[in-house]
Amino acid sequence: MAEPIRVVVTGAAGQIAYSLLYMIARGEVFGKEQSLILHLLDIPPMAGVLEGVVMELADCALPLLRKVVPTTDPLEGFKDVSAAFLVGAMPRKEGMERKDLLSANVKIFKVQGEALDKVAKKDVKVLVVGNPANTNALVCANYAPSIPRENFSAMTRLDQNRAAAQIASKFGAPISNVSNLIIWGNHSSTQYPDASHGKILIDNEWKNIVDAVGDNSYLEGPFVETVQKRGAAVISARKMSSAMSAAKAACDHMHDWWHGTAPGQFVSMGVFSDGSYGSPKDEEFIYEAKSKNILGNSVEKFSSVKLDLTGKELQEENKEAMSVLDSN
Ligand SMILES: NC(=O)c1ccc[n+]([C@@H]2O[C@H](COP(=O)([O-])OP(=O)(O)OC[C@H]3O[C@@H](n4cnc5c(N)ncnc54)[C@H](O)[C@@H]3O)[C@@H](O)[C@H]2O)c1
Ligand SMILES: O=C(O)C[C@H](O)C(=O)O
User: Fold this and answer.
1) Digit-coded pLDDT (tens) for 184-198
2) Which residues bind NAD(+) (predicted)?
3) Of the candidates 21, 117, 210, 233, which lies 20 to 30 Å from 147 by C-alpha distance?
4) 309 close to 190: Cβ distance less than 8 angstroms
């Protein structure tokens, strides 16, 4: 059994964390041989709820979980952590766009960036889940200059999982038979779910999804729209935003980042743009991380129009975030 690593989950008294903490503590992210010290960070009014979460984690009797540190102090929460799940932020309600959360949430990521900078391990992997996730990740990284920018990523894995589920259900195939779908751009309704490099296993043979579907109007129309609007559809049905699926996606994201992916397989995560594919350089979290070597530097015309749209939205969000922070 490896020496314990410290892992922090922020928003630890909230909905997503309620599923996420259990999955992490069971070993689904860092492995069944990796013991853990879990840091649970929330805000002072939630201290009582945190106590209940600590009790439940103890009562789960999980062998990998060595210690739990509940706290409302970011400097204690981020101390010596190797991995950080930044979930704590306000969720949107029905009728809102995720960017409507910007003024309420962006300040949280400034404070947490500063705390990470001071006390986290310098090779900490930081996953931002709280919305608007891409812009919050950018802000967090900006306030943690001593940690490399590549160590910050924003979650678009839920969108990838949603896209895979759509394709699997179209073919009546198991989800494990679908791979290499890409989510480009912002985790928002401008995101571009792209099936053009995707593969599906049919009759023991991996086929290109575009060929297997044989209907571009579906892949460029209802498929894209369903994934773009899935978060809103869940809110409309549940009256609360997605939580179980978000927690699973956060585990998938960190798992693949921590351990790497199988050869030839790629996954989506928001990372800093280096200007590839015509994305705005050095500014935004825009394209999925692992694709570059596989895809080269060109994208199809349809894709490039979509990328342009989501890239512009990220630039606008970035500007708005800076003006919120400047006015404080
Ligand atoms: N990227 C994605 O795919 C994705 C998916 C689902 C939800 N989300 C986002 O995740 C966030 C959390 O969602 P939820 O359903 O768990 O919300 P929730 O309201 O149930 O929980 C949020 C928790 O964060 C805490 N919190 C607020 N400010 C904090 C701070 N400064 N430090 C630490 N904790 C703080 C709150 O007290 C609360 O306990 C929302 O912004 C939501 O929109 C993102
Ligand atoms: O849609 C939301 O506001 C929550 C989350 O980002 C989601 O995609 O489900």
Assistant:
1) 888 999 998 999 989
2) 42, 105, 129-131
3) 21
4) yes
| Ligand 1 contact, 43 CB (< 6 A) | yes
ipTM surpassing 0.85, yes or no? yes
Token pair of 225 as six digits: 């729209």
CB atoms within 10 A of CB 53: 23
Helix, strand, coil percentages, rounded to 5, for the chain: 50, 20, 35
Tokens of 263: 């050869």
Structure token pair of residue 252: 């998938």
Ligand nearest to the CA of 130: 1
Q: Verify whether ligand 1 is closer than 6 Å to residue 254 (CB atom).
A: no
* DSSP string over 85-96: EE--SPPP-TT-
- Phi and psi angles of residue 6, each rounded to the nearest 5 degrees, phi first: -95, 130
**Which residue minimizes the CA distance to atom 8 of ligand 1?**
130
For atom 7 of ligand 2, which residue has the closest CA? 231
Task: List the helix and strand counts (H, then E) for the chain.
Answer: 13, 13
How close is the Cα of 205 to the center of ligand 1, in Å?
41
The pLDDT score that the predictor gives to residue 318 is 87
Query: Is the beta carbon of 90 within 6 A of some atom in ligand 1?
Result: yes
What kind and span of H or E run contains 142?
A: helix 133-142
Is residue 132 lining ligand 2, measured as CB closer than 6 Å?
A: no
Confidence of residue 291 (pLDDT cuts 50, 70, 90): very low
* CA 60 to ligand 1 centroid distance, Å: 23
Sketch out the chain's domains with CATH numbers.
2-154 (3.40.50.720), 157-318 (3.90.110.10)
Does the pLDDT of residue 131 top 60, yes or no? yes
The verdict on whether residue 213 carries a ligand-binding annotation is no
From the candidates 39, 187, 253, 255, which is the catalytic residue?
187
Confidence of residue 328 (pLDDT cuts 50, 70, 90): low
pTM of this structure: 0.94
- d(C-alpha 66, C-alpha 271), whole Å: 32
Quick one: pLDDT at residue 323? Answer: 86
**What pLDDT, on the 0 to 100 scale, is given for residue 281?**
59
Q: Does the annotation count 255 as an active-site position?
A: no
